[in-house]
UniProtKB/TrEMBL annotation:
Gene Ontology molecular function: any one: methenyltetrahydrofolate cyclohydrolase activity
Protein name (record): Bifunctional protein FolD
Annotated PANTHER family: C-1-TETRAHYDROFOLATE SYNTHASE, CYTOPLASMIC, C-1-TETRAHYDROFOLATE SYNTHASE, CYTOPLASMIC-RELATED
EC number: 1.5.1.5, 3.5.4.9
Keywords: Amino-acid biosynthesis, Histidine biosynthesis, Hydrolase, Methionine biosynthesis, Multifunctional enzyme, NADP, One-carbon metabolism, Oxidoreductase, Purine biosynthesis
Self-association state and partner proteins as the record states: Homodimer.
Top-level taxon in the UniProt lineage: Bacteria
Spans annotated as Disordered: 1-27
Chain ranges of the Tetrahydrofolate dehydrogenase/cyclohydrolase NAD(P)-binding domain: 166-308
Catalytic activity line of the entry: (6R)-5,10-methenyltetrahydrofolate + H2O = (6R)-10-formyltetrahydrofolate + H(+); (6R)-5,10-methylene-5,6,7,8-tetrahydrofolate + NADP(+) = (6R)-5,10-methenyltetrahydrofolate + NADPH
Pfam families linked to this entry: THF_DHG_CYH (PF00763), THF_DHG_CYH_C (PF02882)
GO cellular component terms, semicolon-separated: cytosol
Domain Tetrahydrofolate dehydrogenase/cyclohydrolase catalytic: 33-147
Length: 313
């Protein structure tokens, strides 16, 4: 989980354009990084790969497990299942009541592990308090862990040989790549040290050659850290926590958070209004990282299916 508090879940390349900023009347206006457009291109590629596999008699399959009636989780699961079906993947949703026992849930996962029609298994978090989420994640077969949360996959990521990259950080890397953001030697600051976003994000940026600072809720003078960043990734679960005064002019700002503000509207962990006047490029909320997270889930699922097909060929 995020070290600050859990944020919501967690979207042809464009050439780099300097710092991407435009000036209007003395104000800097950041270029918007469109997660909807990029995710659409990635989904098209997944659909083509799925069609090829299906032609060989292997239809990529994803099982999404939902426990309880959490409204936000239901929306996320519905979106994931719909995205799978649209891309030509086989998808099943298994929903269980909140009072299911841990042992019962683990037995369902064991069954999915053995099902050759299922190449990826995703358990929607958070789980009810009486169920140990770590135990559940470890029960998923590592080769079907398309979320990339299993301890063996986390270890492979740490050593630079990932089997699966966690979907949200993977999506962020694709966004940076599509924008032509130079990462080798860049100062990258990640705010939020969760296992789901912050830590794997830092690992991926490190592997790309960036110098990475990982901040958490104990960080002293957070603004002093964020103002050094050429690339700033914010995943804290705190609405509008980072404002324009905490952003280096011309920086690339990636907002992973999704929150509902007091006005009822969706907002990120970055104050978009002020930060977009300072940054060179910035992701919006909604329409930024969110669509990329689901797109990369599809990529991980198709990769799992391709590996399985290769193993049985």
């Amino acid at each position: 989980m995020h070290d600050f508090e859990p944020a919501g879940p967690p979207q042809g390349p464009n050439p780099p354009r300097g710092n991407g900023a435009q000036r209007h009347g003395g104000n800097m206006t950041a270029r918007i990084i469109d997660g909807n457009a990029l995710s659409a291109r990635i989904r098209e590629d997944v659909a083509e790969r799925a069609q090829k596999l299906t032609g060989r008699g292997v239809r990529p399959g994803l099982a999404v497990v939902l426990v309880g009636e959490d409204p936000a989780s239901q929306v996320y699961v519905r979106n994931k299942v719909a995205a799978c079906e649209k891309a030509g993947l086989y998808s099943i949703k298994e929903q269980y009541p909140a009072h299911i026992t841990e042992a019962e849930l683990l037995s369902h996962i064991a069954r999915l592990n053995q099902d050759p029609a299922i190449h990826g298994i995703l358990v929607q978090l958070p789980l009810p308090k009486h169920i140990d989420s770590h135990k559940v994640i470890e029960a998923i077969a590592a080769e079907k862990d398309v979320d990339g949360f299993h301890i063996s996959n986390a270890g492979l990521l740490m050593t630079g040989q990932p089997l699966f990259r966690p979907c949200t950080p993977y999506g962020v890397m694709k966004m940076l790549e599509s924008e032509g953001v130079p990462l080798r030697g860049a100062e990258a600051v990640v705010v939020g040290a969760s296992n789901i976003v912050g830590k794997p994000m830092a690992m991926l940026l490190l592997q790309a050659g960036a110098t990475v600072t990982l901040c958490n809720s104990k960080t002293r003078d957070l603004g002093a850290q964020t103002r050094r960043a050429d690339v700033l990734v914010v995943a804290t679960g705190r609405p509008r926590m980072v404002d324009g005064g905490m952003v280096k002019p011309g920086a690339v700002v990636i907002d992973v958070g999704i929150n509902r503000g007091e006005d009822g509207k969706l907002c990120g962990d970055v104050d978009f209004a002020s930060a977009s006047q300072v940054a060179g490029a910035i992701t919006p909320v909604p329409g930024g990282v969110g669509p990329m997270t689901i797109a990369m889930l599809l990529v991980n699922t198709i990769e799992a299916a391709e590996r399985a097909a290769g193993a049985t060929a």
